[in-house]
């Protein structure tokens, strides 16, 4: 068997392991406890075709600036922790590949419509508060398992009524994209309203009247102007805009 020449070995090596290119990652930095305004800091980051925006941020945090504040957890678009604005669009950093952005400059900022904790991390207190306010659980007197209680059976059609809307991971992207939330801090928001519909549409639930009363107020469902921005940025295909319209159907008597 003929030996491989050093030149051929180098060519094979270069073919097998592509040389990573570099992009400019622009990160918004702001600590409200010590600063009055944010600033943008640029970093050169090597990337491959599979590099995600979160990978790039963590490269900066590990090698160039350890002070970068960013929230993340699962790294597989399941926990909703790494939401931020990427080139102006609310997105999950772990789900967005650098190669898909088709730009050598990637700018990351904290999500709009949320108080900034520091840098890319925002405060979700209002999101979780509004979510809990709509009682995101099955309401019925016999919901507890006692004695010889059995599961509540549903047909496939019953499940289809709400299944899509149960995929919400509470990432906050829909609230960040919502133009109403930018002008009304008391607005319940697309996330909470969609989850209200998820339970109203569930035929096991008996809390429909209670939830409809909660959303039928001045900062509730009627403040939504159906811009549709929330559905465009949802990473799980929940379609909050449609959920809100379906919820209105109950209030207007089109749905029972």
Strand order of the biggest β-sheet: 2-1-5-3-4
Q: Write the element-wise H/E pattern from the N-terminal end onward.
A: HEEHEEHEEEHHHHHHHH
Q: What helical percentage do the residues reach?
A: 25-40%
- N- to C-terminal distance: 78 Å
Mean pLDDT, all residues: 92
Q: Tell the overall outline.
A: globular
Q: Helical segment tally?
A: 11
Descriptive notes:
34% of the residues lie in helices and 14% in strands. It is of the alpha+beta class. It has 2 domains: 19-122, Ubiquitin-like (UB roll) (Roll); 125-140 and 150-251, Alpha-helical ferredoxin (Fumarate Reductase Iron-sulfur Protein, Chain B, domain 2, Orthogonal Bundle). The chain has a 5-stranded mixed β-sheet. A two-stranded antiparallel ribbon has the order 6-7. Strand 6 (116-118) and strand 7 form a beta hairpin. Helix 4 packs parallel to helix 8 (189-200), helix 8 packs antiparallel against helix 9 and helix 8 crosses helix 11. The radius of gyration is 23 Å and the shape is globular.
Structure summary:
This protein has 256 residues and is of the alpha+beta class. It has 11 helices and 7 strands.
Secondary-structure map:
Elements (H helix, E strand, L loop, with lengths): L5 H11 L4 E9 L9 E9 L5 H11 L19 E4 L2 E4 L5 H4 L3 E5 L6 E3 L2 E2 L2 H9 L22 H5 L12 H5 L1 H5 L5 H12 L7 H8 L13 H5 L6 H12 L5
Parallel strand pairs: 1-5
Antiparallel strand pairs: 1-2, 3-4, 3-5, 6-7
């Amino acid at each position: 068997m003929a030996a491989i020449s050093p030149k051929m070995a180098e060519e094979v090596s270069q073919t097998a392991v592509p040389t990573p290119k570099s992009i400019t990652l622009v990160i918004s930095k702001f600590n409200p406890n010590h600063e009055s305004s944010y600033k943008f800091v640029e970093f050169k980051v090597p990337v491959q075709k599979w590099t995600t925006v979160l990978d790039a941020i963590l490269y900066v945090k590990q090698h160039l600036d350890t002070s970068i504040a960013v929230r993340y957890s699962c790294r597989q678009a399941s926990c909703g922790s790494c939401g931020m604005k990427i080139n102006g669009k609310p997105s999950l950093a772990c789900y967005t590949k650098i190669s898909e952005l088709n730009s050598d400059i990637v700018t990351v900022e904290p999500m709009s419509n949320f108080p900034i904790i520091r840098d890319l991390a925002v405060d979700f207190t209002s999101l979780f508060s509004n979510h809990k306010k709509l009682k995101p659980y099955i309401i019925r007197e016999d919901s507890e398992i006692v004695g010889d209680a059995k599961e509540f059976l549903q047909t496939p059609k019953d499940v289809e009524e709400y299944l899509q809307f149960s995929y919400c991971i509470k990432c906050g992207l829909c609230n960040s994209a919502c133009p109403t939330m930018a002008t009304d801090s008391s607005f319940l928001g697309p996330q909470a309203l969609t989850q209200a519909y998820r339970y109203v549409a569930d035929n096991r639930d008996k809390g429909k009247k209670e939830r409809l009363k909660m959303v039928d107020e001045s900062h509730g469902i009627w403040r939504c102007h159906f811009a549709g921005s929330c559905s465009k940025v949802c990473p799980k295909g929940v379609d909050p805009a449609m959920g809100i319209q379906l919820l209105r159907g109950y209030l207007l008597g089109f749905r029972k």
